[in-house]
Structure formats: structure tokens, C-alpha cells
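Hello,

Following up on my earlier ticket. Below are the two sequence lines again, exactly as submitted.
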Amino acid sequence: MTSIGWTQKWTLRFAVVGMLFLALSGFEGLLMRTTSYDQDALHGMEVALNAIRPLAKEPTTAELFYSMLTAHPVVGIYGYVYLCVMGAFYFLVPFLLGKEIKHKKLVPVNFFLQIGGVMLCWVAGFFALFNALYTLYWPLPVSYDRVPLIGSILFVIGAAAIMVNILLFSYNIFSTVLSKNGNQPYSIWQFLRAALGISRLMKWLGKEDKKAPNLDYNGLPVFLVSVARGSVDTVINAIVLLTAGGLILVYGLAALFGSPLNPAVIDALIYKNWFWWGLDMVADGNVLIYTAGVWYLLIPLLVGRELFGANMVKTVIMVDLLVSLGVWSHHLLGDQPQPMWMRLLSGQFITWGEFFTMGLTIFASMMTIWLARPVKLTAPLKFVLGSIFGFIMGGTAGLIQANTGLNLVFHNTTWVVGLHAHTFLLTGVGTLIFGIIYALLPMLTKLEFRSTKLVDIHFWLWMVGATGMAYVSGRAGSLGMLRRTLYEGTTIYSPYLLIAIFFGIVLALGLVAFLVNFIYTLGWKAVLGLFLPEKWLEPKQSAAAAPAQAEIAET
Amino acid sequence: MHKQERNWLIVLVVVFLIFNIITLSTLVPWQEWLLWSKPTPSQQVKIEIANYTMQFPADPIQVKKGEYVEFIATSQDVTYGFGVFRQDGTMVFQMQVLPGHENKLLWKFDAAGNYTVRSTEYSGPRHSEMVYPDKILVTQ
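Thanks for your patience. The regenerated structure is below:
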């Protein structure tokens, strides 16, 4: 019998549900690729599912495809990634600080509100066929001749719940770090100075204020500085998306009550700038810097050597904030009304700032491993190295498309979504999340993963599947295949779709290998025990007949 | 800063400079007229888009190879895309078409032939229907 604490149990709950969302998101991806390859392939399933959809007329395959495409990234990013990040941070932040979580009641609130928000967005797509895609380009989400009104309202309420939840999570993390019930109390001013890099900037200018000490040099772990820094982007992202969602909701409610508003009042270009400025904070702000923070934390722990170039790393964290605030225009390189100077400065040159910040981050990480030789290639270290590979590959693809010249032929192609976005999310972030789980599970449960062979199978299937799928999508994109497009009457991209389906299945088998090992290690009962009352799982067979497996009881 | 960090930073700066100098130069052919020379077009083609439909001034639009033509696309409702594709499906160029704005792009075709126009931005469930084969004819 293994006993685990309250925090550990919640972390496992976040991780398990996050993995279920990954499985759902991946299943949607396979369905959409199959439909793209052959629009009639899933007709039988569509007919069967239409029976439970409360729709006046039978939806077209295109309506189903685009509504699934709208829900897919919400499930993948805000379901899978965010739940896993929340679970990991709710364990790591208090653990590193030697404190309790400040507002424990917010932990289950975060858990259920995130799931509820994501599922509401999914319901808006599955049942109400909301299909404006996650980019919500104005005025499409309020064009009710194209997107269903009820679906639009449901989606933005779900999205708003997610954003409010993210703000609550960030508040709880900040409160925990700043709480004075531990050995390391920090004032909000000190913490923000660390998060914004002001103290480091002042030191660089030779003006360190001794009354507000530079936390970077006074014991605040680099990981926590990264969490704080990334959370600044997270908060901006949530607030901006809330304003956009609020706007869509106002239009939706006005239309619902018979007083439709004029969408032309809102300038599509200004809206697009505002929306991407906030949305981009997910990709170019918190993902990169949270990832960097986890590398800074895990790599020294895994190789038993202090981080190489810690001072440079702290500067990078500061600079990356300025970079992430200014890169959004690389999403508007195809918009000719966007001034050329903004496309060049924000879309191209500042975006290259990430080449420097991530380049230096990866260098510090790799040098730490190199200087610690001989290194035992443990499961988490393998996955950390895999994630570094993912960020190099996805980042390179991103820099190629974030170019005023090359974007003309790469914009909105499957290059963008395959070789850049999915590589970042699956090979980069996804692999890192597995690395965190492989590192944290023994800390959480005092159990080691039972099968090292399954860990290796998981690693290689995942890496080959994710890389192969991304490469094929990138190749098709470089030949002109558009994303967000269900091709009709052309088969020129069919071979690429078929190969991408194959690699998608390889990727899925990698996830299956992980889940089998996870359940094999914890035992079915322990996994179900994370969610069900213990009395429901009382053993009914004799102890002699029961299989030997780990059990987890909350302490 | 460690010596290795400094050397790595120099490598990053060199890669940054090489990549950006190359892609801003006329080695990327269209940068010559989009970024540097900005010539006066010999022809303007206005495309109006509304309700999933593109309206063209002629069928097909005739353009001479090597001459500058300015495509001006406007949308009456939502955001669309204006993309030109070769017969083998590869993309020649594209731009977003934002409602409430004139979306202009200058182009010079370097090969004669028929080109397909397609909306390159999602605009609703009927987006995939917005394909116009052989809509541009480039002559010698």
C-alpha cells in the first residue's frame, strides 16, 4: 500500500484527465485526416451520431468537419496541456518552496472548471456545430448565416470559463509563492520584479536597489522565476481572450433577443491584432518560458549538476517577456493592410528574438547535460531531450514562415499547423509533459514505472509518429496544401494525408504504450481510486486471488 | 558570460543575419517588387467577394508574363483569402482578404499558363467550395 498526499493525488487527477483529453484530441485528429482523405469514409458514423444531435436538418460533412476542427485545439491545448501544467505546477511550486498551496479550495475548482469549460466548447462543436475555428476572425463568429447562434454563445461561455479558470490558477500560484507561512516569503513587488525582469535589468544597469533585492540572486529558484514570468503571459492571454469572448457574447445575446448588432462597427484588422496579441501569448510566451523553466528544473536534477550559465538564463527570462509582447504580427504577415513596418518589425525581426532566447535556453540545457557526462539516460531525460528536439524542429519551421517573403507561400498551409504548431505541441510540449510525469510519478507515489521496455516503446513510437506526421504535413504545405480546408474534387495531396494517418496511428500507439505502463504501475484500482470513492472499490475477491498491484491511499 | 556562451551567441547572430539578409534580398524573387522597387502596375484586377463567391472582372483574367499586375480584393462580409495556384497545386502567392479594407498585392508572373484561384482562409462551412479553376490566363 502506497500512501500519497492530498496535493499528489490532485496532481495525478489533473494528469490523468489531461491524458484523456490528449486521447480525445488525437482521435479527432485522426477522424479529420480520414475525412480529408475520403469524405465518405466516416459517413456511417456521421449518420449514427446525427441521431443524438438536436438539429433541424442533417449537417453536411463539411459542417461536421469544421466544427470538429474548432473544438480540436481547445481540447488539445486547454484540455490536455493546461490540465497537465496545472497539475504539475500545483505539486512543484509548493514542493520547491516548502509551503502549502495558499488556496487549497481553488485546486478542485480549477480542475472541474477547466474540464467544464473545455467540454462546453466541445459540446458547442459536437451538438451545436459551432465552426468559426479557434482563431475567431471577426466577424465570422457573429455571422449567424454561417455559424449557429446557440453554438457561438455556448462556445464563448465555455472559453470564458477556461479563461477565468486560468486567472484563478495564476492567482493561486502567485498567492502561494507570496504567502508568508513558509520559510521563503516574497513580497508581491519582489515577485513581480523577478517576473518582469526589472531587478535583473536594474542590476545590469548597475542600480540594484537593496531594499528590493534581486530575487534571481537570492534564492528564488529559476523554475519559479520562469513560472512567474510565464504567468504574466498567461494572464495577458486570458484577459485578451476574455474581451474577445465578451464581445462575441454581446453580439450573440443581442441576436438571440432579436436586436442584432452591426459587425462592421468593429474593425476586422484591429480586432485581429488585439486577438493575436493575446492568443500568441500562449505559444510564444507561456509555452516557451514554462518549458524553459521545466528544463531548468529537471535537467540539473536528472544529471546531478547545476545549471550551466544560470546568469545568462535569468537574462533570457527577462528578455523573453519583451519578445513575447511584440511578436504577434507574424500571424498577420498575410494581411496586406497591416503596415509593412509592423510586419517587418513585429512579424519578422522581434519574432527572431525567440531564436536567441530559445537558442540560449537550449544551449544552457544541452551544456548542462554535456558537462555532466557520463549521464544515465533515464526515462525523463530521454523525454526532455525529445522535447528539445521538438522545439528546435518546430521553432525552425516557425522562423521560416515568420518571414515577410516566405510567408507568401507558407501562410495558412499545413506547413504552419503541421511542422510548426503540432511539432511544438506534440514533440515539444507533449514530450516534455511525459518527461515530467516520468520524473514526478516516483516522487508522487514512491513507485517506479514497472516496464522500462514500455517506456522505450512509448518514446520511439511517440517521437517517430509526431515527427513523421509533422514532416509529411510540412511537405504537403510547402507544395501548397492549405490547412482548414476540406478538399473536394482533388487528390493531389492524398498520398500525404495517407502517410500522415499512418504516423498519427504510430503516435497513438505510443500514447497507448504509456497508458498501459501507467495503469500497470499504479493498478486499475488505484487509477479509478483517483476519481471514485474508496468504498466503491472495496475488494470482493479473496486476498490470495487478487493480483499484486500498487494501491494508493490518500493521507 | 562564459566563453562558450559568447561563441554560441555569435553563431546565433550569424545565422540570424544570413537568413534575414537572404530572405529580404531579391534572392526571394517577389521581394524585389514587394519590398524594394515597388513599381507602378501595368494592370489592376479588382476582385469582390461576398457570400462565399468571388466576382472577377473577366473570365479568364488575362495577364502578360513579366508585367506587374496589382490584385485588389475586397470582402463584403467576412475574412477570406485570395490565393493563386499552379496546375500542379503548388501555390504562387496568397493574401488575406479582410472586410472593410482594400487588400492589395502586386505580382509578376514568370511563367505562362492557366492558374487557379482559391480562397485560402476559412470563411464558414462552404469555404472549400471557393475554387475557380483556370481563372487567370498568363500569356507570353
